[in-house]
Task: structure prediction
Amino acid sequence: MENIKKYNKIFTAVFNVNETDLNGDFSITSVDNWDSITQLTLVSELEDEFDIMLDTQDILEFQSYEEGKKIVKKYNIEL
Result:
């Protein structure tokens, strides 16, 4: 499976949304159920799927679908 599909699958599962909902507007400020619990779940799922360990700063900055893609790419994961 392509990495972007894996990335999207994690978002759709964690937030219980359709893949078509994932866009530049999908962020902590626009998604009602994006809270500390879903944030930790999202980070954990991404770390497990891509075998990476996000540092604290990356976790704090991971506040949108698009920003998450930039952060994951920092770990040499091509999306």
In short: The chain has a mean pLDDT of 97. The chain has one domain: 3-74.
